[in-house]
Amino acid sequence: MTDLLTQPGAVAAKYPTEPATDDHHVVIVGGGFGGLYAAQALGRSPVQVTLIDRRNFHLFQPLLYQVATGGLSPGDIASPLRAVLKQQANTKVLLGDVVDIDPDEQRVILKRGQTVPYDSLIVATGGTHHYFGNDHWEAMAPSIKTIEDALEVRRRIFLAYEAAEKEPDLDKRAALLTFLVVGGGPTGVELAGALADLAFGTLEKDFRNIDTFETKIILVEGMDRVLPPFPEALSANAAESLAKLGVEVRTKTLVTSIEGDLITLKRGDTEEVIRTKTVLWAAGVKASAMGKIVAERTGAECDRGGRVMVEPDFSIANHPNIFVVGDLAHYAHQNEGRPLPGVAPVAMQGGKYVAKLIQHRVADKPMPKFEYKDSGSLAVVGRNAAVVDLNWIQFTGFPAWMIWLVVHIFYLIEFDNKLVVMTQWLWSYTTRNQGARLITGKDVDKVEDTMRGEIRLQK
Amino acid sequence: MTDLLTQPGAVAAKYPTEPATDDHHVVIVGGGFGGLYAAQALGRSPVQVTLIDRRNFHLFQPLLYQVATGGLSPGDIASPLRAVLKQQANTKVLLGDVVDIDPDEQRVILKRGQTVPYDSLIVATGGTHHYFGNDHWEAMAPSIKTIEDALEVRRRIFLAYEAAEKEPDLDKRAALLTFLVVGGGPTGVELAGALADLAFGTLEKDFRNIDTFETKIILVEGMDRVLPPFPEALSANAAESLAKLGVEVRTKTLVTSIEGDLITLKRGDTEEVIRTKTVLWAAGVKASAMGKIVAERTGAECDRGGRVMVEPDFSIANHPNIFVVGDLAHYAHQNEGRPLPGVAPVAMQGGKYVAKLIQHRVADKPMPKFEYKDSGSLAVVGRNAAVVDLNWIQFTGFPAWMIWLVVHIFYLIEFDNKLVVMTQWLWSYTTRNQGARLITGKDVDKVEDTMRGEIRLQK
User: Fold this and answer.
1) Nearest to A74 among B86, B148, B438 (CB)
2) Are B168 and A12 in contact (CB < 8 Å)?
């Protein structure tokens, strides 16, 4: 492990691992909702902030499924971290991959051995997809967690239609026009709805040999209803909306095997084999790898999903200056011990709280306890329909969709001026002319391999 | 070679290579300006049209440099071909790779051996980049012809800044902040100008360790002035605007070697070695591979750049039903034998003319001669400056930039509603907050390799 500050030839004072002043140095790992809200909340404090992320942008993940289905471009839902934070003179952004932390020496270690010292550390690296012990399914059934994932899924969806248009064999064509979405949570429901919008709306007049109404969209959920965390009435309403859109919803159903284009579903004792070229995985989320590292180095406990158990102030037991917020944290000090859900508002509020706590600590002031303000949940179900649960009142259908839209626009434009983006999207959404339906990628020369129904997998 | 129409198991009537009626069947290879204008002009004719392209979208290439520099997203300047042509009931779009043509049997051959019969054939596959015998330079000095090229260049530009921000060695940092653009034609000038806008505008406040004003942008041109096809006064004005923007313009200068990050420039007898991590190639265009194939199969001649010599009606000698339009054609029947330039208006007018010729031929009517209407040339030189030559009047500076803008918006929105896109772009352009500055790609885990100044090349 080399320490850059003492390395010969290094212009130490200029190297970004060293804070510019002797101020309290807060290192934040991860520029998602938790990390970015923390960084912004520290903007005018007498502390130095270094935000480290592997990517140079914050991603508005709630709309990533729209990139996967050709409604939005990556640039529409991503904001360069440097641009978001450029007015904060006390804040540095560092493009880097944190691979370890060293609580004794109070520093984080980057992939190539460089170290960044901290006084307070906020870890907010979020979650990743989870195949429940079937990691080999990933190639056939990609998840949508990154921009690259979304572009790969977009590529597969539109290649499936192109291949179907050219496919003379009716069975193969049916397999190409079958889309299986695994997981009936908000992401799965939103994806299935967007696929239905595509098949039975946007693409309607695009093809000459196939009828896009032949498309079969199957949404599979292991529990007894879609959107399990929502009230039952809203789950029922979402299922009904999906059915109206043309999505086949199968509850109490599990995927038991994926072999090539044959997917085995199991419901009770009944097995069924579906033939499809496109399986999209929206079933599981687990903590990112940093969870295990933080636990090992600090002696913290993790839950089954790899999330780090945190104290009431998001710190780690016996390490009051190391905090974990967002999807990586297991916060069980409210709701009778049930952990807070892995959603954006929890990450935002956690990030803000920890920022404030550090400010108070530096100023030697006491900090009140954290209290999560649950303003409700919402999920969109295709064009013009959604379900919204504000805890004291519930909405479905178009009014819920309007609420969903306003909330998303509000948060999307917070960091960055994306208002025109959203106007444009609404316009193309309304006119059913979503323009980002591009098949792109490195293997463009292989496009002919879609002939005869063989879709090349890029991963 | 298999013929799908007679292949066992094939549902022949449904296969897209067979036209739906006995109407005259026009096959168009390539969905660029030439091919797409031809397809649209044939929309209401009593003919069947099949447009074949390797990509599922039309690309508005004149703005591709904006994608490479983070100003626009790919979806902003690409329109799905199916969407553009969906109202034309007589037109099929086929995603495919034409590898050969067979003039005797009147059919084109796709990569996997399938054939598509034609009565008239329009070849419009355009041009590709040209390294003048130094194809090994491509990895170090990418061109910008495709969306994938532009995203790779975007990745390199922004990784160079990220690496510079982390680089303690001053020489390495200088190499990271040096950008060399090879070629002083419109593309090179536009790229250099956009890089200057980035370095000395957009990115100004983004970094903490580097001053983006340290950026060195060098534009190299072999001739004695930039924009050689323009009138001399406009070339001089463009050079002046570039200098004002902070671009070093070196005319009469050639690149003689590229070895790693050392690039040798030669001016007269003087050699100079520049150290840079980012070289962008805007120097040469040659005809795509179809040119050679068409020439071989028809006995047509090609020029040195591989362009097919065409008759006054864009047909090939002795093959009146095979046409070549756009950048692939060498049309020398105007301007005292000088070929028409490889620009979008020539492709559009050629495509439209051939479409009309085929319509007249089918209706047994005579067709007047083709005459190219040259409405002038224009090139943008960074923010708020351009040069415009309308033949009867010339503009420079801001008025020229306004004309450039209006012309580009006009053509960009022709196929597709991109007006909101352009509004958004103008907004972020004016506010210097171009949001598409994302580093994306397959190798995101390798982002740490930018540490210590080593940029991983993705290709």
Assistant:
1) B438
2) yes
CA of A354 vs chain B CAs: smallest distance (Å):
25
DSSP structural state of residue A14: G
For B79-131, how does the pLDDT look when each residue is reduced to its tens digit (9 = 90+)? 899 999 999 999 999 999 999 999 999 999 998 888 999 999 999 999 999 99
In B, which residues are within 8 Å of A112 by CB distance?
A: 448, 451-452
Identify the CATH class of B135-282+378-453: alpha beta
User: In sequence order, what are the residues at sequence separation of 6 or more whose Cβ sits closer than 8 angstroms to the Cβ of residue B335?
Assistant: none
Distance, in Å, from the CA atom of A419 to the CA atom of A433, rounded to the nearest integer, reads: 19
Nearest in space to A156 (alpha carbons), one of A452, A445, A350, A438: A438
Q: Can you give the residue ranges of every domain in chain A?
A: 4-54+96-129+286-362, 135-282+378-453
Number of Cβ within a 10 Å radius of residue B143: 23
Tell me whether A74 touches chain B (CB under 8 Å). Answer: yes
ipTM: 0.86
- Here the tokens at position A14 are 């200029």
Q: Which of these is catalytic: A148, A190, A204, A232?
A: A190
- Cα of A300 to nearest chain B Cα, Å: 27
Read off the pLDDT of residues A140-154 as tens digits, 9 standing for 90 and up. Answer: 999 999 999 999 999
Q: Rounding to the nearest 10 degrees, give the CA dihedral for residues A153, A418, A340, A183.
A: -20
Buried b (16+ CB within 10 A) or exposed e, A316-341: beebebbbbbbbbbbbbbeeeeebbe
**Residue A348 — left, alpha, or beta (φ > 0 → left; ψ -120 to 50 → alpha)?**
alpha
Q: Same fold for the domain at B4-54+96-129+286-362 and the one at B135-282+378-453?
A: yes
State whether residue B97 sits within 8 Å of chain A by CB.
yes
Q: What is the CATH number of domain B4-54+96-129+286-362?
A: 3.50.50.60
Percentage of chain A beyond pLDDT 90 is 73
> Cα–chain-centroid distance for residue A120?
26
CB atoms within 10 A of CB A313: 15
Residues 130-189, chain B: which have Cβ within 8 Å of A?
Answer: 146-148, 151, 158, 162, 165-166, 168-170
- B436 Cβ under 8 Å from any chain A Cβ: yes
* Segment B404-437, tens digit of pLDDT: 888 888 887 776 666 666 776 677 676 666 667 8
CB atoms within 10 A of CB B70: 24
Q: How far apart are CA A301 and CA B291, in angstroms?
A: 66
> End-to-end distance of chain A based on CA atoms, in angstroms?
33
**Looking at the complex, does the CB of residue A356 fall below 8 Å from at least one CB of chain B?**
no
Helix (H) or strand (E) holding B187: helix B186-197
Helices and strands counted in chain A (H then E): 12, 25
